[in-house]
Every structure is written in structure tokens, then in C-alpha cells.
Design a protein that fits this description.
three-stranded antiparallel beta sheet; globular; about 10% helix
Length: about 80
Amino acid sequence: MEGLIRKIVIGEDPKNGMAYYVGMRAGDGKVDSIILDERHLYKYSIARYLVYIKNENDVLLWKAVDSMPCIIEYDLNF
């Protein structure tokens, strides 16, 4: 069972990669969610992750990450 994605690190080398995590400030908003685009995966057999931000009024798609090496960190509740 897959859980909610808490953090994504993008790049060949995790130490030098770009990281996005839920709650991170992004301009005037914060990262609201990171999801695996299952339709894209099914259609093209390529994983694509979508990063959404929330500002005062809306939740908007901010970034799409595809065809890149990624490390995914899930939100675990113990």
C-alpha cells in the first residue's frame, strides 16, 4: 500500500539534488501535496510526480517532475 508522499529529492546525486517537501515555502504559498501521476504512468510507463502549492485562495500545480531520478520519502504514521 502506498502512503502519502512527504518529500521528493530530484537528481542523480541526492546530496546535490533539489528537494521539495510538504509544508515547504514556495513564493507566497507552501507545498500542499506531492502526488504520483498515475494516468501518466499508465499511459507512458514513466513515473511523473506533481507538486502542488497552496496560496491564500487556491491549490495550484507548481511543478511536474518526469524522467528524472528521484528519491521518494513517504509520510509514515506510527
